[in-house]
Amino acid sequence: MARPSPARAASALALAAGLLAVPAPEEARAQDRGVSYTFYGTPGLLEMPTATSADEGEIAGTVSFFGGQLRNSFTAQVTPRFSGTFRYSRIDDYESEGEAFYDRSFDLRFRFNDEGRYVPAFAVGLQDFLGTGIYSGEYVVATKTIGDAFRVTGGLGWGRFGTYGGFTNPLGLLDDRFETRPDTFEEGVDTGGEVGAEAFFRGDAALFGGVEYAPNERFILKAEYSSDDAYDELDGEPLFERASPLNFGVAWRPFPGVQLTGAYLYGTQLAFGATITVNANQRPFGAGLDAPPQPVAVRAAGVAAARSWEGAASSEPALAASLQAALRTEGVDLRGLEVTDTTARVRYANTRFRAEAQALGRVARILTQELPPSVETITLEPVQAGIPLSAVTLARSDLEALENEVGGAAAILDRAGFDDAGPAAGLVPVASVQDRFTWGLRPYFGLSLFEAGERFRLSFGAELSAAYRIRPDLVLSGSLRQALLSSEGDDDEDVEPIGGVPVVRRNSGLYGDDGYPVIDDLTLAHYGRPGRNLYSRVTVGLLEYQYGGVSAELLWKPVESRLGLGLEINHVRQRDYDQLFGFRDYEVTTGHASAYLDLGNGFHTQLDVGRYLAGDYGATFTLDREFENGWRVGGYFSLTDIPFEDYGEGSFDKGVRLTIPTDFILGRPTRRENSLSLASLNRDGGARLEVDGRLYETVRDGHLADLEDSWGRFWR
Amino acid sequence: MGAVLAMRDAWMGAALLALAGCGAGDGARSGQERALGIAGQVQGLFRGVGSGDGVGLPRAVPGGFSPEAVAAEPDAYRVVQVNALGLVEVGRVIQENGDEVTLALQSGPTAAFDGGVLVATRGFGDDLLTLDSAGVREAIAAGGGAFTRRMETLDAQDQVVTSAFACTVAPAGEEAVNLGVREARLRRFDENCRGEALIFDNIYWLDGGGAIVASRQFVSPSVAYLRSNRL
Questions:
Q1: Of A30, A367, B5, B230, which has the fewest Cβ atoms less than 10 A away?
Q2: Contact call for residues A52 and A35 (beta carbons, < 8 A)
Q3: Window from A346-350, A493-497, A687-691, B204-208 with minimum mean pLDDT
Q4: A267 to chain B nearest CA, in Å?
């Protein structure tokens, strides 16, 4: 589905070439211009929020410091109106002198409408709605941009936002209950991590507001009236002196994607913040610096009508050889070929392009150059992990007609046929040119947050990885790590189980701690196609840093379906702390039944139900927002039958994750991606085995939904 | 052997901001998530050292770009100039499907022309995906006219975006044009196109037979104009 792309101001080069740029009327909405971030890491003023949203797809990381509070936040603008924030804060001297307090918080904001000529934008937000509740507050806010340079905001807040200048909650008119705010978190009693919904919009409310002035594109001057007076230590003593409710600050954007903020808050505090933004919708290298594809060769009219190909049998090996050489220029490894008079079936592995649709297009172009003229129907079967994923059937005449035509991509998608890959029988196998043995040595950087007993651990070292492809679908691989630098560990004592729940993840800090090289993983993996629409995987060996054993998986996923169903069973034993070949005593059988659903509009959801590493039963729900260019941001949570009190901090397992495709950053085609995953706490409940190469991620690339998403790259 | 490293909390914040880590293995995709709570493995863009997977091969353009090759087959070459990118070089025709000609530039990108009208480029990054050339060609053949031009590009989400431009073509007399190896007296046509956010001007020089011998045509905002001419 085509989406209008915002026009960009002409570059200086283009201007020099005599190009005039005419700004389109009302192209940028008023509320989208000059959006800057608060010290909480959300779009807004300084400490107060506004009813503005960042550009869709923008992800901002903010670090800010004042008054003994260090806040690290990630905000993702998941849709044009909805954003979520994850924050990890440190408050010095919170509990007692010299003792810092660490806090995690999650925010949500939803903007109801776009600004109109006279109508402001309205938004509602929940701050720190999950967790220990130190920053908890809710608000409704309205923002109006005036002219080109001014913006005014006013809002009503509850919780923290209602602690200065507060008055009886106007919602008390609806129900008396709203007038008091219950304490949803009792230090030492509650374990945090529960949604404090019964407190939402309750208690005193207060007004807040502010103005922003942007003299030019780089600076925004801000002044706000803050209704937040809850900067307190645990015992109620203020963290700093609050002399005035007025805050003043400047946001400076030296270049796009970076914002630095300095402010003078509450009449006594100097505050600093830095924000870096990245946006899935702004690719630095345009569509990429991919080497150009081969042009389509159009057959001469008379030749196309030929119905037979002379010398079929003897020429097939020669055809396979020349086709293989041609496909290698595109990073495509030919695996099998079946040619008849009028049809050709080509099975290949794409090692270069993130989008299989792009590889399809490139292979199709090369086929028009290489295949004998009588061949009219072309079937392409992409392979990954040694197994064919699907079969896409194209008519050669369509390729010839639609190469450089407006609407050509949509037209060829319309005419393409999609089905499961055909049988191996009939396919003449072609020896893979992929090196059997590959290896790599690269640095790794591990950051461990929120580990019980320590707040974070940092490690840096070298990772040596190697793989040996016994057959394309049977791979022996492993990686070895040597830590070069590592922050001090707490102690090396064994971790005791809590509430009878076996220790399955809480001792993960003890792994790889001895300074010697450790085996991160060492596995033999086999992939198979047991039947139509069925995919299988068996992995044996040291599956992850903490467990070794056997993992088997079966996936049912028809090519044109948005739904996949899977079953995974693992039998594993906990590895020794030295991460070599030894094992500890703990052994468990885990497994999950999973449902994968592509909801459309870029939303994907997954539900796994089964037994986790600690022997607990439960379910994990995952929701991802995926962008067609490969970016993914999402979160998950797990609930199991382990009672909340036994969990330790954080009542249920939850986390967020972000994936950025490497070709977005580098501008060159590559299938690699970078992932960042933040789990909110380290615990034993709801823990799943981390095994590489799970089927759904591999298989979905070659299926209709993902092919359609990036079909724009077919002709690229 | 691990050294003790005292880290400030601010580094943790900076690490959170850093684009994160990498999967393992060449050509394999793996997002590793650790239940440990490890935030990520910031390998960043460090590719380290290692073997490749051995599949890729460079592609050679048949014929090459040596002066001898150009002299031997002048019809198969064009002179190409892209001022915005500082390119002045020779392009070789690698595919001819009737009127549709695909040119491979010496530095890598390709450009496709339909009857002399640029219809696609690849390899510039900000490429012209494709364009509808019928309107331009008809207007030139008729000696002038107005029509709508449709151009396709890819947006940041790999979606095809079609832009429409209101264009007019008008004759602009005759002039002597330097084609590199010779000078020729050619008829000039100017095309002016206006769209929602862009305005550009293309120029075509035609020979006596009505074929476009030289041109300056718009590609995209960052590539701007591509000039090409026959030898």
A1: B5
A2: yes
A3: A493-497
A4: 25
Confidence of residue A24 (pLDDT cuts 50, 70, 90): very low
Contact assessment for residue A444 and residue A479, using Cβ atoms and an 8 Å cutoff: no
A368-385 residue pLDDT tens: 999 999 999 999 999 999
> Across residues A410-418, what is the average pLDDT?
96
Tens digits of residue pLDDT in B168-212: 999 999 999 888 778 889 999 999 999 988 999 999 999 988 899
**3-state SS class at A128:** coil
Q: Is A627 on the interface with B (CB under 8 A)?
A: yes
Does residue A303 belong to the interface with chain B, where contact is any CB pair within 8 Å?
Answer: no
User: Can you read off the two tokens belonging to residue A456?
Assistant: 């974070």
The pLDDT tens digits of the residues spanning B26-52 come to: 222 222 222 222 222 333 345 567 777
Q: What residue ranges in chain B does DSSP mark as E strands?
A: 3-4, 21-22, 38-41, 49-50, 77-82, 87-97, 100-105, 110-114, 117-122, 130-131, 145-154, 160-178, 183-194, 198-206, 212-220, 224-230
What single letter denotes the amino acid at residue A555?
Answer: L
Do the beta carbons of residue A364 and residue A380 sit within 8 Å? yes
Secondary structure of residue A705 in the 3-state scheme: helix
Shortest Cα distance, chain B CAs vs residue A635, angstroms? 12
The confidence score (pLDDT) of residue A187 equals 53
Instruction: Identify which has the larger pLDDT, A515 or A586.
Output: A586
Buried-exposed string A178-189: b where 16+ CB fall within 10 A, e elsewhere: bbebeebbeeee
What mean pLDDT comes out for the span A193-203? 77
Q: For position A13, what pLDDT does the model report?
A: 34
Which pLDDT value is given to residue A16? 34
Using a CB-CB cut-off of 8 Å, the residues of chain B touching A437 are 51
Give B113's strand partners: B101, B118
- Please give the structure tokens belonging to residue B22: 């990498």
Per-residue tokens: B59 = 């592609």
> Three-state SS for A122?
strand
The answer to whether the CB atoms of A329 and B58 lie below 8 A apart is yes
Q: What is the largest CA-CA distance in chain B?
A: 81
Mean of the per-residue pLDDT values of chain A: 86
By Cβ distance, the residue of A88, A282, A688 closest to B35 is A688
Pairing label, strands A121-127, A332-339: unpaired
Is A483 touching B (CB cutoff 8 A)? yes
CA-based nearest distance B203→chain A, Å: 12
Q: What is the predicted pLDDT for the residue at B202?
A: 95
Q: Quick one: tokens of B201?
A: 């001007």
Q: Which of residues 631-650 of A touch B (CB under 8 A)?
A: none
Nearest to B224 among A19, A408, A437 (CB): A19
Q: Among partner residues A17, A448, A671, which is closest to B29 by beta-carbon distance?
A: A671
What chain B residue is nearest to A520 in terms of C-alpha separation? B24
pLDDT surpasses 70 at A615: yes
Cβ distance of B57 and A329 shorter than 8 Å: yes
Contact residues, chain B, for A283 at CB < 8 Å: 156
pLDDT in tens, B113-141: 999 999 999 999 889 999 999 999 999 99
Q: Which residues of B touch A295 (CB under 8 A)?
A: 94-95, 97, 102, 110, 112
Q: Given an 8 Å threshold on Cβ–Cβ distance, is A675 in contact with B83? A: no
CB A705 within 8 A of CB A598: yes
